[in-house]
Design brief:
The complex is a heterodimer of chains A (about 325) and B (about 650).
Chain A: E1 16-19, E2 26-29, E3 48-54, H1 63-66, H2 76-85, E4 90-94, H3 107-120, E5 125-128, H4 133-146, E6 153-157, H5 162-172, E7 175-179, H6 184-196, E8 204-207, H7 217-232, E9 243-245, H8 246-250, H9 254-257, H10 267-285, E10 289-292, H11 295-308
Helix pairs in contact in A: 2-3, 3-4, 4-5, 7-10, 10-11
Chain B: E1 3-9, E2 13-18, H1 23-29, E3 48-53, E4 56-57, H2 66-70, E5 73-75, E6 80-81, E7 85-88, E8 125-131, H3 143-155, E9 160-162, H4 164-176, E10 180-188, E11 191-199, E12 208-214, E13 218-225, E14 231-238, H5 248-257, H6 261-284, E15 291-298, H7 300-307, E16 329-330, H8 331-334, E17 343-346, H9 356-365, E18 374-379, E19 383-388, E20 393-398, E21 419-425, E22 432-436, E23 444-445, H10 447-459, E24 478-481, E25 484-490, E26 501-504, H11 505-528, E27 538-542, H12 551-556, E28 568-572, H13 574-584, H14 586-598, E29 599-601, H15 609-617
Parallel strand pairs in B: 1-7, 9-11, 12-15, 15-17, 18-27, 20-29, 21-23, 27-28
Antiparallel strand pairs in B: 1-2, 3-5, 3-7, 4-6, 8-10, 10-11, 12-13, 13-14, 16-17, 18-19, 19-20, 21-22, 24-25, 25-26
Chain lengths: ~325, ~650
């Protein structure tokens, strides 16, 4: 029996962001339909998956995770290279040492680390601060200036500290990661504030704040889904690509942290599944860029995306 | 219990209070209204007084500097006299003479409003002349039965009752008057109570009624001639309950958690009304007994407190009032100084936070009888709104907070003399022009000034869309105060109290929340019935505050919906007007009960739609610019 495929007509499409320079430049977004509905609209770019690099060896990672980065944990540049070898489309550098309680290193010092990492890899770079809004506002403009022309993404810009970060991005040709606490209106407000500083809207990537599987993922799912439908219905202030900062959420779950037990099985396998499931779920909600920690998770996610990017046989 | 004597200066008033009572309570007893926005929680620091003689126990030191404490300064709400004390009250701690907003009486205003004139003059208290056939041996019906028969046959009035007192003197009155009498009747639902039987000649004496609007902040009274419906006088003042807190919640808390608090609150409001009655009667050369009927309108809490009914559960989930349609009570029972047997009618409310003042407003603006989709808002300490027309009506109440009444704002004040009521900030924030109520030197900013300020601070680039101060502005008006950055509206040398008048970041955050709550309420009502803002054909704004709203600015900050300005109508104090119409028309009175029953109340705390709308409204003017088409040219790019 013939089935008539119902197609939604959308009036608009997501913005396409272009990050990095040269051959390994990455494009994200630009769809004119919901995730992977190839029969309905265009999906010019597959979702992007990347790995995280820290400016200091992480303290709370399980051994099986640090093991895959053996020998490079002390050297962010080498670590980043390793990530690219593992197949990362992008690399996120987390500047943890600028945190007032974790070393409080100066903006100049942080910028040096960022330059070293940027020099080591040819994939696009995301540089994230420590989460202390004032400190990030002081450090990221310095980083922006040191990475001038590299077309990176800097964040997280919040409603409290976006001004100096965005100014740094404008002056040095970068994009910004605009972060909001699981609220579509707040996300939109921040995008409006940033575009009113005259940063082009295709240089903004939204971090809607996410939760891992079992830790409020449904809230993130619904916010991201609403962002996507908002974009498709013509809301320009919700049309920016969405970044999923999966790593910190997935790896702090009980499921990722609990050791091997008979009922729960092997920890390593379980942790990777948790990271993969969180990322793919939110990619299906409408996320464009997923940042994870385990290279095996990266491979699984990319494999899944590869299958989902096959056109449907209707 | 022993008593303490408290003397107040410069008033030169003395009162005795019980041991343990505060200076604030003493002042209330002396009839002195002190500023007390926080309801005696020692947080607002506005009820400062100086103890010049005698000792007090005082525990609220945070708001008083040590050198001030040495000179005897205390917070009246915390200071408990330990022996006889003499207290000096500075002007700044008093509620000054208040400009109460009575009805506007603009020509043309009533054109949009049915009701007045439309309803037949048939007061809740009225007199009617009847002539009874004298009894004979063959017609030996009793006197009362004869009166009842005459009322029915001559006037068509049945279902009457009579007070024992009137009945007692009835035989003599009827015979003295030669069976031709004037009967005084009070409406009680479908029934009428005979309140007096007088010789026909007594018809010339005056009969008056009172329309009373009991607001959380202010109380207004009109003296109305019940024979012809004319308003003989009006007066207004602060609600003396203000010393127990600015909003209904803090008053309920005071009433339920302070021993004797409920009685104090009841007394405070009754004394407020009695003061106004005395003033009106004096001016009109009338006696209290000439006032035969009283109609009160007020929010649900105010009516509970006025009648002395336990308001506890208004504040607690699921927010149920004791009564929405209170029965009439005798004036003597609530302590009003009018004819003791006069009935006091309170207009029916809809729910805990949509009271008889709103029902009155709906009756006055005529929306319940008209076709156009109408939005009616009463913006005061709470923002109540009703949406609908003759076919359906929905109401909600959003706690906008008292910011627009000047409370919770560092330099906020009510719309009294010296309040900045209009402000313009020129681009860059270098120049500020303002106008004050009474054109005197400014001492604070009232609600309309705050709306103006928010709007023009944004347009001048001093704050961003999120309501945050823009950093690095090169203007001396932008300074760092004790509580973070602040913007100077008026310099020390311009003001009436020798201090800068400023707006702090916290003030602006407060205003943003207040305006967002109002708009979120409107949007929630509209989306619940699946209507767009454009569908609203008329908007009526009521409340003392409404008179001063600059609609253009209120739309610019996203507090009021962006519909053509000509759809807006100010209707002033519709609560008072509604009370007067009910006083004069049994039909209107019955109509208000009908309206109260027809309005569907929507509880905003159920579900998350209101919160969602609230957050999207926490932006200038709104996260969704499509709701504010008329502003899109004025403000920049975002769509």
């Amino acid at each position: 029996m013939a089935v008539t495929i119902v197609k939604e007509r959308w009036s608009s499409r997501c913005l396409e962001g272009v990050f990095g320079t040269g051959a390994k430049q990455v494009k994200a977004g630009g769809e004119s339909t919901l995730p992977f509905l190839h029969f309905e609209g265009e999906i010019p770019n597959p979702p992007v998956v990347g790995l995280e690099v820290f400016d200091a060896p992480p303290q709370e990672w399980p051994a099986f995770l640090t093991r895959v980065y053996d020998g490079v944990l002390e050297d962010p540049a080498a670590w980043a290279k390793k990530c690219v070898e593992y197949g990362a489309d992008m690399v996120t550098l987390r500047l943890t040492r600028i945190h007032p309680d974790m070393g409080d290193v100066s903006p100049e010092e942080a910028a040096k680390v960022a330059v070293a990492v940027a020099g080591a890899v040819d994939v696009p770079l995301i540089v994230l601060g420590c989460g202390v809004e004032e400190k990030d506002a002081a450090v990221l403009p310095e980083v922006a200036s040191a990475l001038k022309g590299k077309n990176c993404l800097l964040g997280l810009a919040t409603q409290e500290n976006y001004k100096s970060i965005v100014a740094g991005c404008i002056a040095n040709g970068h994009g910004v990661v605009a972060s909001s606490p699981l609220d579509i209106n707040l996300a939109k407000q921040l995008n409006i504030l940033i575009t009113e500083m005259n940063l082009e809207s295709d240089r903004i990537v939204m971090d809607p704040s996410i939760g891992a599987l079992g830790y409020g993922i449904e809230y993130a799912y619904s916010i991201i889904e609403r962002m996507r439908t908002g974009a498709l219905m013509g809301d320009k202030m919700l049309a920016m690509p969405v970044v999923l900062l999966v790593g910190p959420e997935a790896w702090k779950t009980k499921e990722a942290k609990s050791p091997d037990t008979a009922e729960w099985g092997e920890q390593e396998k379980r942790a990777i599944i948790w990271e993969v499931t969180t990322a793919t779920t939110l990619i299906h909600a409408g996320g464009h860029i997923a940042m994870v920690r385990h290279p095996e998770a990266l491979n699984h996610i990319k494999g899944h995306i590869g299958k989902m990017m096959q056109p449907q046989q209707y | 219990m022993s008593k303490k004597l408290v003397s107040f200066f410069p008033d030169n008033l003395r009162v005795e209070i019980d041991t343990g009572q505060t200076i604030l309570q003493a002042a209330a007893k002396a009839g002195i209204a002190l500023r007390g926005a926080c309801g005696g929680k020692k947080v607002c620091g506005r009820c400062r007084v100086q103890v010049r003689k005698g000792k007090t126990a005082f525990t609220g030191a945070e708001k008083i500097l040590p050198e001030e404490a040495e000179k005897g300064w205390v917070l009246a709400c915390q200071a408990v006299p330990e022996d006889a004390v003499e207290v000096f009250i500075p002007e700044t701690s008093r509620l000054t003479e208040h400009r109460v907003l009575l009805d506007e009486r603009r020509p043309g205003l009533l054109a949009a409003v049915s009701g007045e004139g439309a309803a037949e003059l048939y007061p809740l208290f009225r007199r009617t002349a009847v002539k009874l056939p004298a009894p004979t041996l063959t017609d030996n019906t009793d006197d009362y039965g004869r009166l009842v028969w005459a009322l029915k046959h001559e006037q068509g009035i049945d279902n009457v009752m009579i007070t024992r007192q009137v009945l007692a003197g009835l035989p003599g009155t009827l015979r003295d008057a030669d069976w031709s009498v004037v009967v005084e009747l009070a409406s009680l639902g479908p029934a009428s109570e005979i309140q007096g039987v007088k010789p026909a000649a007594a018809k010339d004496a005056a009969v008056y009624g009172l329309a009373v609007d009991i607001g959380t902040t202010t109380v207004a009274v009109e003296l109305v001639d019940l024979e012809n419906g004319a308003v003989s006088g009006s007066a207004g003042t602060y609600n003396r309950q203000a010393v127990f807190g600015d909003d209904v919640i803090s008053r309920i808390v005071y009433g339920t958690e302070t021993p004797g608090g409920l009685e104090e609150l009841q007394q405070a409001v009754v004394e407020t009304v009695n003061g106004l009655i005395a003033e009106l009667l004096h001016t009109a050369c009338l006696n209290p007994t000439d006032v035969r009927s009283v109609v009160c309108a007020g929010n649900t809490t105010m009516i509970h407190l006025f009648l002395g009914i336990d308001p506890t559960y208004i504040r607690l989930e699921p927010y149920v009032p004791a009564v929405n349609l209170p029965p009439p009570v005798r004036a003597a029972e609530v302590g009003l100084k009018v004819c003791p047997e006069a009935w006091v009618y309170c207009l029916p409310g809809v729910a805990s936070y949509v009271g008889g003042d709103i029902t009155a407003g709906v009756k006055v603006n005529g929306m319940a009888e008209a076709d156009p989709l109408t939005l009616f808002m009463d913006i005061g300490t709470n923002g109540e709104m009703v949406l609908g027309n003759r076919e359906w009506m929905m109401a909600c109440a959003c706690s906008a907070g008292p910011a627009f009444e000047g409370s919770g704002i560092a330099c906020g004040m009510r719309a009294v003399v010296g309040a900045i009521e209009a402000v313009r900030v020129l681009p860059g924030g270098f120049e500020v022009v303002y106008r004050t109520v009474g054109d005197g030197k400014p001492i604070g900013i009232c609600g309309s000034g705050l709306i103006d300020a928010l709007s023009s601070l944004y347009q001048a680039g001093v704050i961003d869309r999120g309501g945050k101060f823009v950093q690095g502005l090169d203007t001396p008006r932008f300074t760092e105060g004790e509580e973070g950055p602040e913007f100077v509206v008026a310099w020390t040398n311009e003001t009436g109290h020798g201090r800068n008048i400023v707006l702090t970041q916290a003030d602006i955050d407060n205003l943003m929340r207040a305006k967002a709550a109002v708009f979120a309420g409107i949007r929630t009502l509209l989306t619940t019935v699946d209507l767009e803002v454009e569908a609203v054909e008329r908007v009526f704004i009521a409340g003392g505050f409404g008179r001063f709203i600059n609609i253009r600015d209120a739309v610019a900050i996203g507090m009021l919906p962006d519909v053509p300005l000509e759809r807006y109508t100010y209707i002033g104090n519709s609560s008072l007007k509604g009370a007067r119409l009910a006083l004069l028309s049994r039909e209107v009175w019955a109509g208000t009960a009908d309206i109260a029953r027809r309005i569907t109340y929507m509880e905003l705390s159920v579900g998350n739609r209101f919160m969602e709308e609230f957050v999207s409204a926490l932006f200038l003017p709104h996260t969704d610019m499509n709701l504010f088409h008329s502003l899109q040219g004025r403000n920049s790019a975002a769509t």
